[in-house]
Design goal:
This protein is of the alpha/beta class and 317 residues long. Helices cover 40% and strands 21% of the residues. The chain has two domains: 5-123 and 301-313, ATPase, nucleotide binding domain (Nucleotidyltransferase, domain 5); 133-296, ATPase, nucleotide binding domain (Nucleotidyltransferase, domain 5). The chain is globular, with a radius of gyration of 20 Å.
Amino acid sequence: MEKKYAIGIDLGGTSIKYALITNDGEFLFQGKLPSLADVSAEAVIGQLVKAVEAVKGFAATEGYEVMGIGIGTPGIVDVTCRIVLGGAENIKGWEQLPLADILEASVGMRVLLSNDANLMGLGETMYGAGKGATDVVFLTVGTGIGGAVIIDGKLFFGFGGRGTELGHVPLIANGEQCACGSVGCLEHYASTSALVRRFEKLSMENGRTYPGKEMNGELIVQLYKEGDQLATECLEEHCDYLGHGIAGFINIFSPQRIVIGGGLSEAGDFYIEKVSSYAKRYAIPDCTTNTLIMAAHLGNKAGSIGAASLVFNSFIP
């Protein structure tokens, strides 16, 4: 296979992870910068330019010819017009932004752009847990729930690149308000944030405190493994909600693999087994026959490698 080289950038609310990556998934150079997301859009763009220049400098020294730059960004992205439309609450002023055009003018290279969860899913499909499959649904479960859909080996964006907001599938009719403005979304009930919120509420009602411990998913998993009743109740509820959502995706797409990323997916085999049990309880059996539910493999490299894959595979014209 002929070696190809691309810059993959994973933009987050705290940091920018960047790398020079080959088409066989090798990281030749990588680094991290603060994203300055709480300052301004201009500040973030300045950091992105710094990241690109760092990789370009390394590539020039080694004599590597870089095909282009792929960027995964929070928010809803119009991939055709290459604009960040909005929806990235963790980056100040990150809306109605022609990001690809701005960066191309600054760094003199082709830039391809997509939603960060889409590119994590693409990375897992090309190089991680979904490798070898053509039809994959990827979910990242954390503060929120993001997702990606790969159909016949290609990212599915929806018309104008505005689809696959898998965390905002309505789950509960007349449910609680979600951050997106709707009510009853899967994210609001099945994210790690929702799990922690529920555990905090029940702990308060039962007069329980955890001195010196940070209230997070890791603590809940630890308590669950120790047989704690409240932690068990909350984790079962979380897996039930997530299983409902996944069952819906199985019924719609009948993928070969459902890949789950995020901190909870790394908690142990029990977590994936529990989510799988609920999902298969609610999915139509004939739809789930060929579906394997599994944990993501690439960790925090998925976004960068997925962004580079965007360049190698020309998923966006």
